[in-house]
Amino acid sequence: MDIICYFANLKICGTEYSTNDKGMRTLNRLPFSVDGYDFELVQDSAVLRTQERELIGTFIESTRLYVNNVEPENTKVICQIARRLAYMLSLATDSQVRFYRWHAVNCEEGQRWSVNGVYNYFRPPLCTIETIYLKSFIEGGYATYKQLEEVRTLKVAIELFVTSDALEQPVELRLANIFILLENLKHSYAKNHEYEYIKGAWFKGGKRIGFKQILIDMFDSVGMSPEVSEIIKLRNEIIHSGLSEMGGKEKYQVFSVCKELSGEYLFRLMGYQGKFYRHTTNGNQSKMLSQV
């Protein structure tokens, strides 16, 4: 049978055109293949024509995902794939993308869930117009995402990443979200790389290893070598007191650095190779990621 899955809070161009009954062409179709299935993501044309500023902060039913020739016993598999795709698309667009409904074509089978989340557009890591790189991320990274989803708690990590920018909130709360994300990534990395957690501390080879060193090791594992001292200093101040003597502009600069580093780490972790837009440059500059 043929299945349609419904996503919310996604606004991207496609790589192929569709034509309506009036002959109007819209670049809103994105075909791709994962897990042995051929999918087509189709963006709602009206949403695509709407300015981002009119949609930010609202829940929008935005996108359909089509897949054909599915055996009835594999509908749960398709739903699992759609949920993973929603998280990957959230990370790529920095918006709270939600999978909220599916139904089979020409029959009554289907299901709908109550979900929350809002559309956001602010310095997305991947381009939402030239989506060839987004397609590459989905096709090239899905298998790795699936493999690491549980052991690296990727659903939690991505939700923390997106939440830090999706809602209007003080910079201290943005920082708290991003520091919790770094803590989450550090913990799952250590747990899966021969570190031992004993009486509230991490050890490796019988030696106690602090937060800073684990963070350095974690970034190094994907070919990154950032300076983390200022990040850790502000993290300690925010977590232990909820406040910092640092000015608002400086706090946001640290947040932006953390946002960019955590995003780049997640993309590298999933094996993405392609253009990555930098949060610290207002999303105006990009860098090419490649595997080490």
Describe, in plain words, how this protein is organized in 3D.
- The chain has 9 helices and 12 strands.
- The protein is an alpha+beta fold and 292 residues long.
- α3 (75-93) packs across α5, α6 (171-191) crosses α7 (211-220) and α6 (171-191) packs parallel to α9 (248-269).
- The longest helix is centred in the last third of the chain and has 22 residues, at 248-269.
What is this structure's SSE topology?
Elements: E1 3-8, E2 16-19, E3 25-34, E4 37-43, H1 45-49, H2 52-55, E5 61-67, H3 75-93, E6 98-104, E7 110-112, H4 132-148, H5 154-166, H6 171-191, E8 196-198, E9 201-204, E10 207-209, H7 211-220, H8 229-241, H9 248-269, E11 274-277, E12 286-289
Antiparallel strand pairs: 1-5, 1-6, 2-3, 3-4, 4-5, 6-7, 8-9, 9-10, 11-12
Helix pairs in contact: 3-4, 3-5, 5-6, 6-7, 6-9
What are the key terms here?
single chain; about 290 residues; alpha+beta; three-stranded antiparallel sheet; 9 helices; 12 strands
Short description:
This protein has 292 residues and is an alpha+beta fold.
Helix and strand composition category = alpha+beta
- Topology pattern, helix = H, strand = E: EEEEHHEHEEHHHEEEHHHEE
Helix fraction, binned, reads 40-55%
Count of beta strands: 12
Count of helix runs:
9
- Calculate Rg over CA atoms: 20 Å
Query: Which sheet architecture does the biggest sheet show?
Result: 7 strands, antiparallel
What's the overall average pLDDT, rounded? 93
Beta-strand residue fraction? 15-25%
Termini separation comes to 42 Å
Are there runs of 5+ residues with pLDDT below 50, and where?
Answer: none
Shape: globular
Strand order of the largest sheet: 2-3-4-5-1-6-7
